[in-house]
Amino acid sequence: MRRVAAMLFGSGGGISSVGFFLPWISFSCAGEQQVFTGADLAQEGSPELWLVFVFGLVVISLAAFFLMGPQAPPKPLDDLDIESTKRRLSFERRHSLGHVVVLIASLCAIGLLIVEYLQQMQNTEAELKALGHSLSALDIRIESGAWASSLGFVAACVGSVLGLRSESKEQNAQGS
User: Fold this and answer.
1) Other beta carbons less than 10 A from residue 152's beta carbon
2) DSSP state of 75
3) Taking the chain, what is the end-to-end CA distance rounded to the nearest angstrom?
4) Range among 30-39, 48-57, 60-69 with highest mean pLDDT value
5) pTM of the prediction?
6) How far is residue 56's CA from residue 52's CA, in Å, rounded to a whole number?
């Protein structure tokens, strides 16, 4: 289950990172259309959006750590093998901490995406009102890149929760 969880949140991080460079939002009015990627929006006034890309890279890095590292903690030779027990606890803590970091990074990225969307809509509405137009005169579409980034982070959250559940089940089974 550890590998499945790591592959799931790693895939989510990859999808989110690629989605950052795909079209996020398009505006069209009077036959004219503009399309912006996440990187465009980050460069043109919302530098905090670069954190979405960074969070995606963090998730990918942790997935690589989980997939390339040892898949099972070292087994003690006997009940009195203190060094193996220490290594086992260290392994379990690292894995649990990694899942928590993935979950926090993904939730922060999702929150940032929602806040940024609401701010963009508010700013656009204010600019249109200043020009004497209404928001209904503008056709605004959320594009594939924004959806990919959002859904990628949701997948990372699901993978992280599955990994944490797997960790706790294994710890409960060993404690019994």
Assistant:
1) 27
2) P
3) 20
4) 48-57
5) 0.79
6) 6
